[in-house]
C-alpha cells in the first residue's frame, strides 16, 4: 500500500537512475553536478510541476553499498516500458511516434501548435501514457489531428490511423473506470484485460482457482493479463519468456549483479527469490519472496520491485510494475522507530471491535528513507509513504515494512509556497497551526497511516480477501481505514508520552484542520468542474471528511462559514471530531472484516464520489490566482559509475538532469526493451 500526497500543500513522487557503463562515461549537456544549493524546481506545464530531489547520505555509503544501489536502480529502469504497456495497449506506439517527431522536426518551433505539442508530449511522459496519472481521463491535445498528421509526414513518422485517431476521438476515454453500475473491466482502457473480458469473466475465472493453503491465499492475477482466446479465458504471465519477457530478462540481469553485492545473507536470499519469481511467474515464489523480504530488515539499502499495487485494476487483481530504491535515513529512523515498538499498544487501544483487533501485531518495521532510484508506476509521480507487502496473511503472520520517503517530502516542502493555505484556511489561528506544526503533522500522519494503519485489524474467519469482497471499493476503503487510524491517534497524548511531539493538541489540531480543509475543499482543484471523484485516495479523503462533517452537524462540530462570498470550514470541537473519526474507523474496519460490500458501496458512493458543484466552482475560481500546479513529480538523479581499465566500478557519482524532456528522451533511448505491441 502506498500513501499518496495530500495536495500541493504537502507532498508526492520518486526517482530512478540512468545508463549502463558504455553510456555513462561522459557527462552530457543535460546533466550537472549536484550542488549544495540544489534547485528543486525544474519545469511546469499544464497541471504538473517537475521537481528535483537530492540523495542525502550517499557519501556515507561504502562503494559496495553504492554498487548495490546502482544495480537495483538499473533493474528498475529496465522495466520502465512495462508500465506504459500496462496502462494502455497503444501507449508505446504513441510515445515512440511523438518522440520521433520531437527529435526530428525541423519546422517552426515558435508556433502555438508546436508549443501545444510539446506540452502534450510532456503530459504523456508524466502519466506514462495518454491518460491522466490521477484522474484517469484521456489527455486532450490542444492541437488538431491535421497538425499532428503534418508533423508525422514532415518527420517520416509512421503511426497507424486507428492509433492516431484514438488520441483525438472518444474511444478509451477512461484508463480506470470505477463508476457504479457499469462493467468496470469492459469500460476501462487499462491493458490488464483483453477485448471482450468483463467483470463477470474475471469473477468467475478467479472463483474457480484454489490456493494450496486457504489460510495463505495466493495473489491470483497479480502478474498476468487476462484475455479471451477463441472464447476461452487465458492468462498471459509476466515472466521471462512470457509477456514482457524482453524487459524482464534485463531486470533479472541487474538483479543478479545486485545479489552479488548484497549487504547480508538475508537480503541476498530475498533478491534471489525475486529473480526466481521473474523467471517462473510462480505466485508461491512471490509469497516466499515477500516473507523473506519482510524479514530482511538489516542493512542500509532496501528496495521495492515488481508488480505490486492494484490501484490501476478496476477490480483490484493486477499489479502495476514499480520500483523504489532506498537508503536508510539513520537519524529519523531511530526517532520514528518508536511507532513500530509500540504497535501493539495502538492496536489494543483502538476503537475497533475486539474481534477485529490483532492479538499479536508482529514484525512492523518503520524507517524514514531517502530515495535513490525509482521507475515504473512510481515515476515521475510517486507516493510519500509505502507499506508492504499487501497480502493480509503475511501482514498478520510475519509483519510488514513501512517507509516514509524523507527526501521526497523535503523536496516538496522546499518547492511549495503558502499562498493556498492563506486563501483557504478559515482564520489566522489555523494558518499559524499549519505553519508551525503542519510539516511534523504530515510526517506523523504518513507514519501512522503506514505503520499502524495498514498493519491494524484482521478479517473475520472465512472472509475472503478484500479485493474479492469489496471489489471496486477495496482500494479506497483500505486507504481510508489507514487514514482514520492516523487521524484517531494524532490527537492523542500518547504521541507526546512517546517523545514524538512537544504539544500533542496543537499537532492534532493542525492535522484535523488540514485534513478536513483538503478533503472537502482544496483537493477539488484537481478536478474539472462537473467531474466525480474517482481516484482511490481522493475518494477516501472525501468520504472520511464528508461523513464526519454530516454526523457532526447536530453539535456543529465542523461549521461552514461563508465570508465575502468565500466558503471556509471551521472545526469547533476537536475532541468530538476525534470521537467521530473513531466511530468511522470502527465501522470501516467492520466492513473490511466482514466483507460487507453493500456498506462499502453506500459509504463510498454516498460520501466520496459526488461533489458540491457550487463549492467546486468557487474553489476553482479562487485558485486561479495561483501559478503553482496542483500535481508534482520528479526527475531522477543520475548515478554515473566510473571504471578502471578492467571495467571494474571504482566510484559512482551523482549528477542532476537539467530538464525533464532530456531525461525522458534518455530513458526512451537507453531502456527501450519492449516492442510496440506485446
Describe the structure.
With 678 residues, this protein is an alpha+beta fold. 45% of the residues lie in helices and 14% in strands. The strands form five sheets. The chain has a six-stranded mixed beta sheet with strand order 1-10-11-9-8-7. Helix 1 (63-78) packs antiparallel against helix 8 (245-260) and helix 18 runs antiparallel to helix 22 (574-594). The chain is globular and about 70 Å long. The two termini are 28 Å apart.
Q: Which spans of ≥5 residues are poorly predicted at pLDDT below 50?
A: 6-37
In helices, the fraction of residues equals 40-55%
- N-to-C terminal Cα separation, in Å? 28 Å
Q: Report the major sheet.
A: 6 strands, mixed
User: Beta fraction of the residues?
Assistant: 5-15%
* Tally of DSSP β-strands: 16
Structural class: alpha+beta
Instruction: Order the strands across the largest sheet as they lie in space.
Output: 1-10-11-9-8-7
Categorize the overall geometry: globular
Output the number of helix runs: 25
Radius of gyration: 24 Å
Average pLDDT score: 92
Summarize the structure.
The chain has 678 residues and is an alpha+beta fold.
Please give a handful of descriptors for the protein shown.
six-stranded mixed β-sheet; three-stranded antiparallel β-sheet; alpha+beta
Amino acid at each position: 500500500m502506498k500513501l499518496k500526497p495530500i495536495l500541493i500543500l504537502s507532498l508526492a513522487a520518486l526517482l530512478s537512475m540512468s545508463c549502463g557503463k558504455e553510456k555513462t562515461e561522459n557527462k552530457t549537456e543535460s546533466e550537472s553536478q549536484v550542488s549544495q544549493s540544489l534547485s528543486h524546481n525544474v519545469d511546469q506545464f499544464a497541471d504538473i510541476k517537475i521537481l528535483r530531489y537530492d540523495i542525502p547520505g550517499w557519501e556515507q555509503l561504502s562503494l559496495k553499498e553504492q554498487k548495490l544501489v546502482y544495480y537495483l536502480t538499473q533493474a528498475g529502469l529496465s522495466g520502465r516500458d512495462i508500465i506504459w504497456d500496462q496502462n494502455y495497449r497503444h501507449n508505446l506506439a504513441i510515445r515512440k511516434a511523438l518522440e520521433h517527431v520531437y527529435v526530428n522536426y525541423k519546422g517552426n518551433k515558435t508556433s502555438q501548435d508546436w508549443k501545444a505539442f510539446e506540452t502534450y508530449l510532456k503530459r504523456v511522459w508524466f502519466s506514462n501514457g495518454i491518460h491522466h496519472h490521477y484522474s484517469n481521463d484521456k489527455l486532450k491535445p490542444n492541437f488538431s489531428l491535421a497538425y499532428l498528421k503534418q508533423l508525422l509526414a514532415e518527420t517520416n513518422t509512421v503511426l497507424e490511423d486507428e492509433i492516431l485517431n484514438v488520441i483525438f476521438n472518444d474511444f478509451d476515454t477512461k484508463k480506470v473506470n470505477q463508476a457504479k453500475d457499469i462493467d468496470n473491466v469492459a469500460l476501462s482502457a487499462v491493458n490488464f484485460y483483453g477485448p471482450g473480458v468483463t467483470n463477470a469473466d474475471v469473477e468467475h475465472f478467479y472463483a474457480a482457482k484454489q490456493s494450496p493453503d486457504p489460510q495463505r491465499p495466493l495473489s491470483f492475477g497479480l502478474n498476468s493479463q487476462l484475455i479471451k482466446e477463441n472464447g476461452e479465458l487465458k492468462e498471459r504471465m509476466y515472466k521471462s519468456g512470457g509477456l514482457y519477457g524482453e524487459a524482464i530478462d534485463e531486470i533479472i540481469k541487474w538483479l543478479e549483479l545486485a545479489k552479488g553485492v548484497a549487504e547480508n545473507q538475508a537480503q541476498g536470499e530475498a533478491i534471489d527469490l525475486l529473480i526466481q519469481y521473474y523467471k517462473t511467474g510462480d505466485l508461491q515464489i512471490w509469497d516466499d519472496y515477500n516473507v523473506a523480504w519482510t524479514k530482511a530488515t538489516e542493512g542500509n539499502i532496501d528496495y521495492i520491485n515488481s508488480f505490486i499495487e492494484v490501484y490501476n485494476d478496476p477490480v483490484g487483481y493486477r499489479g502495476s510494475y514499480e520500483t523504489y530504491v532506498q537508503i536508510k535515513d539513520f537519524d529519523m529512523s531511530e526517532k520514528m522507530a518508536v511507532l513500530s515498538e509500540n504497535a501493539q499498544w495502538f492496536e489494543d487501544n483502538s476503537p475497533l471491535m475486539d474481534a477485529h483487533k490483532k492479538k499479536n501485531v508482529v514484525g512492523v518495521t518503520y524507517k524514514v528513507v531517502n530515495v535513490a532510484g525509482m521507475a515504473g508506476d512510481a515515476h515521475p509521480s510517486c507516493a510519500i509513504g509505502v507499506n508492504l507487502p499487501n497480502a493480509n496473511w503475511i501482514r498478520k503472520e510475519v509483519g510488514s515494512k513501512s517507509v516514509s520517503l524523507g527526501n521526497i517530502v523535503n523536496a516538496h516542502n522546499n518547492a511549495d509556497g503558502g499562498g493556498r493555505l492563506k486563501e483557504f484556511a478559515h482564520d489566522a489561528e489555523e494558518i499559524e497551526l499549519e505553519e508551525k506544526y503542519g510539516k511534523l503533522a504530515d510526517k506523523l500522519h504518513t507514519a501512522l497511516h503506514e505503520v499502524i494503519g495498514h498493519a491494524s485489524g484482521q478479517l473475520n474467519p472465512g472472509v475472503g480477501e478484500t479485493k474479492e469482497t469489496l471489489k471496486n471499493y477495496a482500494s479506497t476503503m483500505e486507504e481510508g481505514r489507514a487514514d482514520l487510524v492516523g487521524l484517531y491517534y494524532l490527537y492523542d497524548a500518547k504521541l507526546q508520552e512517546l517523545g514524538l511531539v512537544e504539544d500533542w493538541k496543537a499537532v492534532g489540531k493542525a492535522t484535523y484542520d488540514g485534513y478536513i480543509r483538503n478533503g472537502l475543499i482544496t483537493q477539488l482543484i484537481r478536478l474539472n468542474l462537473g467531474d466525480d471523484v474517482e481516484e482511490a485516495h481522493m475518494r477516501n479523503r472525501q468520504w472520511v471528511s464528508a461523513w464526519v462533517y454530516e454526523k457532526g452537524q447536530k453539535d456543529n462540530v465542523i461549521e461552514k462559514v461563508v465570508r465575502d462570498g468565500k466558503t471556509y470550514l471551521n472545526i469547533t470541537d476537536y475532541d468530538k471530531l476525534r470521537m467521530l473519526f473513531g466511530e468511522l474507523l470502527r465501522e470501516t474496519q467492520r466492513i473490511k472484516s466482514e466483507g460487507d460490500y453493500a456498506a462499502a458501496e453506500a459509504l463510498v458512493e454516498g460520501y466520496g464520489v459526488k461533489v458540491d458543484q457550487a463549492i467546486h466552482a468557487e474553489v476553482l475560481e479562487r485558485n486561479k490566482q495561483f501559478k503553482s500546479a496542483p500535481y508534482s513529480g520528479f526527475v531522477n538523479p543520475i548515478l554515473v559509475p566510473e571504471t578502471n581499465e578492467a571495467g571494474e566500478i571504482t566510484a559512482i557519482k551523482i549528477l542532476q538532469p537539467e530538464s525533464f524532456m532530456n531525461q525522458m528522451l534518455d530513458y526512451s533511448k537507453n531502456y527501450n526493451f519492449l516492442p510496440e505491441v506485446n
